Amino acid sequence: MRQPGTHVVEVGPRDGLQNEKKALGVDTRVDFISRAVDAGLRRIEAVSFVNPKRVPQMAGAEEVMAAVPRRDDVSYIGLVLNERGLDRALESGVDEVNVVVVCTDEFSLRNQGCDVAEGLARWERIAARSREAGVFTTATLAVSFGCPFSGEVAAETVIEIVDRVAQSGPDEIAIADTIGVGVPAQVRALHAGLDRVAPDVLRRWHFHNTRNQGYANALTAFDLGECALDASIGGFGGCPFAPAATGNIATEDLRYQLERSGVTTGVDHDAVVAAASWISAELDSPVQALLGKAGLFPG
Fold first, then answer.
1. Is residue 148 a contact partner of residue 107, using CB atoms and an 8 Å limit?
2. Do 232 and 255 meet the contact criterion of CB atoms below 8 Å apart?
3. What sign does the dihedral 235-61-34-134 (CA atoms) show?
4. What are the pLDDT digits (tens) for 153-204?
5. For helices 251-260 and 269-283, what crossing angle results, to 10°?
6. Which of 243, 187, 238, 191 is nearest to 215 (CA)?
7. E strand or H helix at 219, and its extent?
8. Phi, psi (5° rounding) for residue 10?
C-alpha cells in the first residue's frame, strides 16, 4: 500500500503483543485491530507468521486474518521470516508482507535460525514470489542501530545490506532499532546511506523507546523526508529474542508529535487513548504512553 506522505504504521497487534507475558486470544486481537481501524489507522501490522511454539502470542495468525474488518482504505501487514511464513501470509490474504532481514549473524541465528547471508538469500526468494503475487513488500533490517549480542553495528554494514536488499526491488525498506539503542546521529547517517544506495525506495522507520530516544529519532527521520513511522498503541512491545527490549514508541505520543509538526495523521486522539486503556486492561500491563495522562495541548 503506497500511502502518501509521512504516516503512522500501527504495529501494536504484532510487535505490541509479541513480548507480553499474557497471550491474547484471537477474538481479543481482532477486537484490538478493529479499535485501531476505528481510531483512523490505515496501515496495520496485524499478525506474524512465525512458529507459535517460539512466539505463542502470535498463534492463530490465519484465524485473525479471517476475522479482521476488511475495508478498501485499510491495509493489513503480515510479518514473515521465511518462505513457509510467506505461504501462510499469502493464503491468509494479507495486503502486505514485511520480511525481516537481520544485520548481525548472532541475532539472525537466534531470531531466524540462519546467518545474514542465508537471511539475504531468503529475502531474495521471498521478494521474487511476493512480486509475482502482486503483494506490497517491505524489507525490515533488524538491529540496524545495535545488537544485544554483537554490540555496535556500523552504518556502513547496514547500508551494504540495504544495497543487496534493494537489488530485489522492495516496495519499501524499513530500518529498525530493534532494541532501542539508537540516537539521531545514527538516523542521519543511515538516511544518508539510503539516499546513496536506494534513493527511490519508500522509507519506513521502526523505533523503540527503551532508552528514551525513540521520539527524538522519529522526529529526526521525519525532518529528513517523507516516511512511514511504526508505532504501537499504548507504547507496548519488544522483541522476545532481545534481552531487556521494551516498548515501541506509542501511537498516541507520535500522533501528537506529528500533528504539532504539521502532519495530518488521520488518527483520532481520544479513540487511540481509549484503545490503549482497553488493551492495557486485557494484558494486565500498564500503558507506557504519556498522552493519555497529560492530554492534548491546547486542551
1. yes
2. no
3. positive
4. 999 999 999 999 999 999 999 999 999 999 999 999 999 999 999 999 999 9
5. 160
6. 187
7. helix 214-224
8. -80, 115
> Is residue 82 very low, low, confident or very high in pLDDT (cuts 50, 70, 90)?
very high
What are 53's three cell numbers? 511454539
The C-alpha atoms of residue 44 and residue 251 are separated, in whole angstroms, by: 12
From 153, 195, 159, select the one nearest 177 (Cα to Cα): 153
Q: At which residue does the C-alpha cell 532499532 appear?
A: 177
Distance of CA 106 to the CA centre of its chain: 21
Cα dihedral 247/213/165/128 (nearest 10): 30
Say how far apart CA 25 and CA 91 lie, in whole Å. 21
Give CA–CA dist 288/144, Å, rounded: 24
pLDDT at res. 1: 58
Mean pLDDT of all residues in 138-147: 98
- Any bridge partners for residue 192, and if so which? none
Catalytic (active site) residue 239: yes
0.90 exceeded by pTM: yes
Is pLDDT of 12 > 90? yes
Active-site residue, from 103, 147, 227, 239: 239
Give residue 16's identity as a one-letter amino acid code: G
In sequence order, what DSSP letters do the residues of 43-109 get, joined into one string? EEEEEEES-TTT-GGGTTHHHHHHHSPP-TT-EEEEEESSHHHHHHHHHHT-SEEEEEEESSHHHHH
What pLDDT does 201 receive? Answer: 97
> Torsion angle of alpha carbons 113, 118, 122, 128, nearest 10°?
180
pLDDT 10s digits, 236-267: 987 666 666 678 999 999 999 999 999 999 99
